[in-house]
Amino acid sequence: MISFTLNGKKVDFKGDPNMPLLWYVRDEQKLTGSKFGCGVAMCGACTMHLNGTPIRACSTPISVVKDGQVTTIEGLQSKAAAAVQKAWQKLDVVQCGYCQSGQIMSATALLEQNPKPNDQEINQAMQGNLCRCATYHRVRQAIHSAATHLAKEV
Amino acid sequence: MNFSFLYDAVKDDKQNKQNNLLDRRTFVKVSTIAGVGMTVGVMPRITDASASLEHGFGHFIRVANDNTVTVIIKHLDKGQGVTTGLTAIVAEELDADWQQMRWEFAPHDPTRYNNLHWGPYQGTGGSSSIANSWMQLRQAGAAAKYLFIQAAAQKWNVDASEITINKGLVSHASGKTGNFSEFIELAAAIAPPQEPTLKKPSQFRLLGTDQIPRIDSPEKTTGAANYTLDVDLPGIKSAVMVHPPVFGGKVKSVDAKAAMRIDGVRKIFSTARGVAIVADSYWLANQARSALKVRWDNSKAETRSSEKLWQDFKSLAKKDAPALRDDGNAEATLKLASQTVELDFEFPYLAHASMEPLNCVAKVNDKRCDIWTASQTPGIDEAVASKLTGLAAENIFIHTQLAGGSFGRRAVPDADFVSDAILIAKELPNIPIKLQWSREDDMKGGRYRPMSYHKMKAAINSNGDIIAWHHRIVSQSLLRGTPFEGLIKGPIDAAITEGAASLPYTIPNFRVDGHEAQVGVPVLWWRSVGHTHNAYATEVFFDELAHKLDKDPIELRLRLLKGQNRYSNVLKLAKEKSNWGSTLPDNKAQGVALHKSFNTYVAQVADVTLNADKSFTVDKVTCTVDCGFAVTPDIVKAQMEGGIAQGLGAILNEKITLKDGKVEQNNFYDYFPLRINQMPDIEVHIVNSDEAPTGVGEPGLPPIGPAVANALRKFRNKPIDELPIGNKV
Ligand code: FES
Ligand code: FES
């Protein structure tokens, strides 16, 4: 049995430990905010946090998250997350929206670790998140805007 | 079904006229829904033989007892923001409060929800959603407003002229106020106005301003938005398809023994399109796929490699071709000319590669077929479903979902991925089947932007004039070989020459001709269709002529844009906003391109930097756009940004290639859409206009390729004639 915390709740998993975290969360926990885009850790649509670090859940076997804290878009609670979501809404970053849970998860993790990233650092942290609608211009602006907002809060 | 709607080679002005005529050809109808509220609709006036329309009722607005106003969206939202745009049009004319506005997708019912640019068909494409709905929804909103004013006048026993509506609040000079919901019963009993008075643009409070937030931002930033991937129904099973490895291949034999031994795998069988695997989950179905052994019959398949296709395209280009435009005598002028310039271009197949790999949920029994998917052309899906199930069209029900991107891919003449789902669901009656293509299935599944070969030749004279232009294009038809082949009116499919034949520059001898290449690789419209390749060829070639004539490329364009004010205006604005012509260091350059597609005029200037290792960076793009009246300016900007970045990714890194007929690319490790690290700064300027609104989903894309290539020309001794460019010059 594999136990871990999902969005603050303890879960016990008894199936195949090789099952990717994404499909367990989506199919069995019915949390569908995390998306499937490539299945090979190349697009970031499935991004979740494991102990605060972004991971690609499509390529993370459930055994890897044993005893860990997993957070999905549905379970985001930090100040950084709120600032990111607010900035995303203020700037209307989304288009089709399909990649955006992943974008927001990566951006939140970035700001939690680096409250004032420059463009270079944003590129570095967000490069794994593809957006075919190519909303990158606003992704970048929204991260700066969230950072500014967070700086004011402290 | 008329498919010419998806590209705009021939329609242009006809549509604008149609759009403006609407007010005289529509009627308004209202009804109450017990306990729910009231609906207002606008639909084509019943004329001649359309008796069946009498039962139809154009429901566009639903005002509910909880005082929400829901706009029924007849188009698919695949990111272009049409749910916001259409909702805003109604909110404006109704003078509703933005907070009370809601939206919901319409069912498939072309008697009420047809695309007015497509005749009797419902659907989304050709950047037409706002353009065709503009008058229709304004009328619906204005009619609803009239009814609320009349209802309030009755209830309060005052004169209607003394009643105003502001942000959803109905008020009388005496101080009486009320919400829409209080007047529903009365309003629904009043005869709707047949010529509702529309606002003047100067009276708009919402449209044309930045006060319209995207209505879908909250759900799309919290993970709450639902796509086909998220459809869940009692007893639902997952399915994957193993398609032939080459286009035109067929299943010869299947060995499913090992695959069936996997727990949770339910059924494996051949369909007309490959081998289907049904399992309890997508993950299990994919495991079964790895264990499956299939032998294929490729005797009728397309097995050429890309190199061979290029050879065949080039030899075809040598043969005489039928013209789609032929002014003066280009061929003779070129023969006699003292100075000619020639350039050939090669552009690859491109994948749509939407972030949501193609998918569809279907449930079939002998009475009905339900389809949950995101489709740009539900009418095709309905027709295909009807054929595959033997059920009448009225027993096919399409439940439209949000699309995780599409760019044309979810409008398929043979409904490929929808067919997959139905063919499987048919074998498992009453069980909802979620068919999910993997990224690899999506990448290898065909329906690409066709590859194309362009042969260009022009004559210039000593006065610095371009006296002849000949553009020959070899590419694949989008319609030939589909059920819609009969709709090709000219000698070749007009999608091939789209944007090339309508070149705006005054050149006395001008010819555009082409060939349809016969290739077994299925192709499709890809964001901006023929313009994707033709704008690159024409605008890069034009710059080459300016280069040869030693003329400033913007000045030469302006000189040859005679009486084409909308073109000239966007170009002049781009010149001004981009600081065109300022002195640049040796490692920096600017390039320009101008193109109209879907009745929208766009100019772009790209600023690039050459790095020491010969790699380059696109630093900034200045984009100017004339799309008529900009209904939702921020979404216009977003569509320009997205079009530019998607187009930039394509010219830098994207290509689909074939080896013995097999697609060589698999996933995002060998097919490369733009990522954030290559994203330039973008500045969008919208030309002020009171003309009818035109599309913005596609027109931002065509100019970016040539603008970047024209900038990079400074660092090379010849133009970039092959795409993608890669990361070095
Ligand atoms: S689906 Fe996980 S990275 Fe693409
Ligand atoms: S918003 Fe569509 S893929 Fe990112």
How does this structure look, described?
The complex is a heterodimer of chains A (154) and B (729). With 154 residues, chain A is α+β, with helices and mostly antiparallel strands. Chain A has 2 domains: 2-75, Beta-grasp domain (Ubiquitin-like (UB roll), Roll), CATH 3.10.20; 79-153, [2Fe-2S]-binding domain (DNA polymerase, domain 1), CATH 1.10.150.120. Chain A has 5 helices and 5 strands. Chain A has helices at 21-28, 79-90, 100-113, 119-126, 136-153, and strands at residues 2-6, 9-13, 47-50, 53-56, 69-71. Chain A has a 5-stranded mixed beta sheet, with helices on one face. In chain A, helix 2 crosses helix 5. The termini of chain A are far apart. The model of chain A has no long low-confidence stretch (mean pLDDT 97). Chain B is built from 18 helices and 28 strands. In chain B, a hairpin with a 4-residue loop joins strand 7 (169-172) and strand 8. Chain B starts with 11 loop residues before the first helix and ends in a 17-residue tail after the last helix. Chain B has 3 domains: 4-220, Aldehyde Oxidoreductase, domain 4; 228-299 and 358-436, Aldehyde Oxidoreductase, domain 4 (2-Layer Sandwich), CATH 3.30.365.10; 306-349 and 448-716, Aldehyde oxidase/xanthine dehydrogenase, molybdopterin binding domain (Aldehyde Oxidoreductase, domain 4, 2-Layer Sandwich). In chain B, the strands form 7 sheets. A 7-stranded mixed beta sheet of chain B has the order 11-12-9-19-16-17-18, sandwiched between helices. Chain B has a 5-stranded mixed beta sheet with strand order 1-2-3-4-5. By secondary structure, chain B is an alpha+beta fold. The structure holds FE2/S2 (inorganic) cluster (FES) (2 copies).
